[in-house]
Design goal:
Two copies of one chain form a homodimer. By secondary structure, chain A is mainly α. Chain A has six helices and three strands; from the N terminus they run ααβααββαα. A three-stranded antiparallel β-sheet of chain A has the order 1-3-2. Chains A and B meet through α1, α2, α4, α5 and α6 of A and α1, α2, α4, α5 and α6 of B.
Chain lengths: ~150, ~150
């Protein structure tokens, strides 16, 4: 936290967060250009964390590191705009499962296309070699994280 | 979005998001170990985006890519726990400015220490050379983003 003070060298948290947030901003602009004008960055966490077979809201909140109340509000909005379908949770009749609708899947495919374009643009700027080194480094860290998580 | 399906190569968005979220999880555990047991990852965005001289809630919401309502709820919680001070905005008497309290600054310093430890641990795992290449790549992308933003 407080990694955002430019007078100091940025810490690893901010070095990861700033490019990630820039991608999110570009996804919003790209979706808007494709006619999806009712989605804000706040809503993207629903799409990022929902599983193809559907997810419970408590699970989405946990994966997105948000409170259940905040996630519930986001899910209600995204559902009302037609991007989600909801059905009862067969394992718990008080809970429900949400999954992407056809419209939600179309947004997801558009977002993937936008991310590919951003990577291409950045790769042109910093060079293919540095982009590959960056991705290799990120994948190496993700492998470390996965081993840590599997040991818990 | 939907970058989280392991059967496909992960896209750049997920490659950045997964390590960032892991850092956030480690900050939460480290703060809890230091006695700050009332802060969840959802609250960290307040600390990440607040300026030393104080910030308005609308500005915090924009910088964190959240709705004003969600940010307002987070700020109220963090303030109630003693991490923030609030004063009237001299430029707009209907608005207020929040800034970190002494307790909030202590949390920030603890978070910086935790991030340094995480970087050290990951660096030991993937090697100093790959960590440096990763940070150079992230800094190169951040420079591209800053040029893009200054041209808008």
């Amino acid at each position: 936290m407080a990694e955002n003070h430019h007078e100091y060298p940025r810490m690893l948290g901010a070095l990861l967060r700033i490019p990630f947030q820039a991608i999110v901003t570009k996804i919003e602009a790209g979706l808007r250009a494709r006619g999806y004008t009712d989605l804000r960055p706040a809503h993207f966490v629903v799409f990022q964390h929902i599983r193809p077979e559907g997810s419970r809201i408590t699970e989405l909140a946990e994966r997105a590191q948000m409170t259940k109340q905040s996630m519930s509000e986001l899910v209600h909005y995204v559902e009302a705009k037609g991007y989600l379908e909801r059905e009862p949770d067969p394992r718990d009749h008080r809970a429900s499962i949400v999954r992407l609708s056809m419209k939600g899947e179309a947004v997801n495919n558009a977002a993937r296309e936008i991310i590919r374009q951003v990577e291409e643009e950045w790769s042109n700027q910093i060079g293919r070699e540095q982009m590959n080194a960056l991705k290799q480094g990120l994948m190496a860290i993700i492998r470390v994280i996965e081993v840590e998580n599997s040991n818990q």
